[in-house]
Design goal:
With 540 residues, the protein is of the alpha/beta class. Helix content is 39%, strand content 18%. Helix 5 links the parallel strand 3 and strand 4.
């Protein structure tokens, strides 16, 4: 297919006039059945590099992605264009996921998104031999590299699927954040003859600022004083779930319309907030980094971090949510040298269970095979800890998960390598180095975008003029006694009620007359009740 022919089809299917040169460079190779690693900035249009070829292939293109929000957005968008698309993830019931698998086996789906965690599912594993794969895509490909900033051992199983493909089946791995070391690791894992396309990571429309503060209160006061003067709507990232509620509560308290978002919300609440973000219902959403990745909103005008991220790579990726339409967007990082490093250091220190807990599990499995539940009970460890230990030991080739005919069990691998906890210490040291580099970013005198691009091994020959070290405005915290008193009052009072589903509990009540009513009880106001008949409020 020539570029002219492809762009005629692009106009017909996607309503776009042309590909970028770098997009076509990848697409042309994919159409020939080649393997590609694409490293391009956020907002470049990497998704088109697999969506377009998928429409031209006879079979199912499978996209492994850790981003559930992205799945929802892209599947909705593809369906509106008349392209049969679906996803498999934890938000759907087992029955819904099974229905999708059956349609994929029948060739009724052209593009299928799947969360990598589903690779542990027997239904999916049994179906792979019956699905006609036309292409495999690894989105956020840095997650399969142990040197990547968001490495997840379980995601390495994606490579097992790649290894089952014939040499003519194209593979595309995409990421916006890969150092040379991560790039080389991904190339080695995917194998075969692979071409890497690395584009410019410079984002000239992002204006980067750092605000040095002495307390959490100074951050909150600056936001109350200045947030409304920033253009449009945006995201405020915090380090913990609790602080998302605290900051959003404060902003609402001072009259800035905000809401909060974190992984503790139920699926319906997350979808509702994501929809509200698209419709600009709030000035900002205060979130952990659970929000943003995969949300296809081009006009986020500001991204603010109240806590220092784990590394310049994390930071580049998170600020990449802003200004995808190419227009100016404000990027602000608060930093309290005395306090802000403590949180990230605790995350690094507690990223993995202790060596003793790994040995508990190994000792347990050395005696006999066990189900996951049996291991939890016998070893007296938390479910989250076992998930990490299990993924690591499987990745090391020491333990495997098999079926004994009735249930899944864990067993030791014969002649397995010896368990070496030292490798985790090495990874911890790397993370400490990343965090130090983030502090270097705060204190650098060079252009901040240049610092980030060089950290990602991208050395563009451009002049950077988009930060507070060059031509952009410098921000400071100014004393404001009125806001200081207001913040004190806020701290002394209970948090204001936020209009979210998980801030209340529901209970059904059946009256003697047979009518069913719903009682809404507010978590933060335990003496407040509302009675509903259906969706109608009938009393308080």
């Amino acid at each position: 297919m020539t570029r002219e022919e492809a762009e005629n089809k692009l106009k017909e299917i996607f309503g776009l006039d042309h590909f970028y040169d770098e997009q076509w460079k990848a697409i042309e190779r994919i159409l020939k059945g080649e393997r590609i690693l694409m490293i391009e900035r956020t907002g470049f249009g990497k998704s088109l590099c697999y969506q377009f070829p998928a429409t031209q292939f006879d079979g199912v293109t499978v996209i492994f992605s850790p981003l559930i929000a992205l799945m929802r957005d892209q599947v909705d968008s593809l369906r509106k264009k008349g392209i049969s698309a679906a996803y498999i993830n934890s938000e759907q019931t087992p029955e819904e996921n099974l229905e999708v698998i059956e349609k994929a086996k029948a060739g009724e789906i052209k593009i299928l998104y799947i969360a990598p965690e589903r690779l542990d599912n027997d239904l999916w594993n049994n179906a792979t031999s019956e699905i006609k794969f036309s292409m495999v895509v690894i989105d956020e490909a840095h997650t399969i590299s142990m040197w990547g900033h968001d490495f997840r051992p379980a995601f390495r199983k994606i490579v097992n699927v790649v290894n089952l493909l014939n040499d003519l089946c194209p593979v595309l791995a995409v990421t916006a954040t890969a150092t040379k070391k991560v790039q080389e690791d991904i190339e080695a894992q995917i194998g075969g003859k692979i071409t890497t396309i690395r584009g410019s990571l410079e984002r000239e429309n992002l204006r980067l600022h750092v605000i040095q503060v002495n307390s959490e209160e100074e951050k909150m006061i600056w936001l109350a004083k200045n947030l409304n003067s920033l253009p449009g709507t945006g995201l405020i990232y915090t380090g913990t779930r609790t602080s998302t509620e605290d900051y959003a509560g404060w902003l609402n308290y001072v009259g800035i319309k905000s809401t909060w978002y974190n992984a503790g919300l139920d699926a319906d609440s997350r979808r509702s907030i994501e929809k509200g973000l698209m419709n600009n219902e709030w000035k900002c959403i205060v979130s952990t980094n659970a929000l943003g990745m995969g949300v296809d909103k081009s006009d986020i005008r500001f991204v603010i971090h109240t806590q220092i991220p784990a590394s310049p790579i994390h930071y580049y990726q998170e600020i990449g949510r802003a200004g995808r339409d190419g227009k100016l967007s404000e990027i602000i990082l608060f930093f309290n040298e005395d306090k802000d490093l403590e949180l990230q250091k605790s995350f690094i220190e507690n990223a993995r269970p202790s060596e003793e807990k790994y040995n508990r599990v190994l000792n347990c499995l050395s005696k006999a095979i066990h189900t996951k539940t049996e291991v939890l009970v016998e070893c007296n460890i938390k479910d989250s800890q076992l998930r990490t230990i299990k993924a690591d030991l499987i990745d090391m080739g020491i333990v495997r998960e098999v079926s004994d005919g009735k249930r899944k069990v864990l067993e030791m691998v014969m002649n397995a390598p010896k368990f070496d906890y030292h490798s985790f210490d090495q990874q911890k040291a790397v993370k400490v180095g990343h965090l130090k580099s983030m502090v270097d970013y705060v204190n650098t005198t060079k252009p901040r975008m240049q610092f980030l691009c060089e950290y990602l091994d991208c050395k563009d020959n451009v002049e950077y003029k988009n930060c507070d070290n060059t031509d952009a405005k410098k921000y400071y915290v100014e004393h404001d006694s009125a806001l200081e008193n207001k913040l004190k009052l806020y701290r002394e009072s209970s948090f204001p009620m936020l209009n979210l589903a998980n801030s209340a509990m529901w209970k059904e009540i059946k009256k003697e007359d047979g009518e069913t009513y719903k009682l809404k009880m507010y978590v933060r106001y335990p003496d407040t009740y509302e009675f509903y008949r259906g969706d109608e409020l009938i009393g308080e």
